[in-house]
Design a protein that fits this description.
four-stranded antiparallel sheet, alpha+beta, binds zinc ion, Peptide Deformylase, five-stranded antiparallel sheet
């Protein structure tokens, strides 16, 4: 099973409101495992189904990129309570290399169904809360750039001379949109955007 390609900003599926999952079947389990594989391969902390081309209300998330960390596989997740606020830099595998500061709730309670069909609630704080908020936004066709403070948008560029191994370069949403449009056009020319 090949790891699915992550859809890039400008792909209409990212702006499509995802549909409620009604049935737990083989197709759904395949989708979830493909999402987990894509998340891990791309060293992400979360992924929503539209990012692999499926407008279904499914997310996967993990509190960090450590191998033995718990991976959440959530069906029809929704935030039922939110409290406090946190600000921090955010990125998204569908907007590669772009970062921006996003204000989120500090704590959330998420209600969802597990892959066994059990209804659960999860209390999350800090990074995991941020990840859940970001991924559930995807299901409502909202991307982090919609919420990011415009003057904080920047590219994270690899830089061997920098102490951290990367540097930040300021950008604008217009410039970012143009760059992703070119990336998308290149992919479409190769036939990669269609599965
Ligand atoms: Zn994202």
């Amino acid at each position: 099973m090949a790891t699915p390609l992550i859809r890039i900003y400008g792909d209409p599926v990212l702006r499509t409101k995802a549909k409620q999952v009604r049935e737990l079947d083989g197709g759904l389990y395949d989708l979830i495992e493909q999402m987990v594989a894509a998340m891990c391969e791309n060293e992400g902390v979360g992924l929503a189904a539209p990012q692999v081309g499926s407008p279904s209300r499914v997310i996967v998330a993990r509190p960090d990129t450590e191998e033995d960390t718990e991976i959440f596989r959530l069906i029809n997740p929704r935030i039922i309570a939110a409290e406090g606020s946190q600000e921090g830099m955010e990125g998204c595998l569908s907007l590669p290399s772009l970062r921006g500061e996003v204000k989120r709730s500090a704590q959330v309670v998420v209600e969802a169904m597990t892959t066994e069909g059990k209804n659960i609630t999860i209390e999350a704080t800090g990074l995991l809360a941020r990840v859940f908020e970001h991924e559930i936004d995807h299901l409502n066709s909202v991307l982090f750039v919609d919420r990011a403070a415009a003057d904080t948008l920047c590219w994270l560029l690899p830089d061997p001379d920098a102490e951290e191994g990367y540097r930040l370069e300021e950008t604008t949403i217009e410039e970012a949109e143009q760059r992703f449009a070119r990336l998308l056009a290149k992919r479409r020319a190769k036939g990669g955007a269609q599965q």
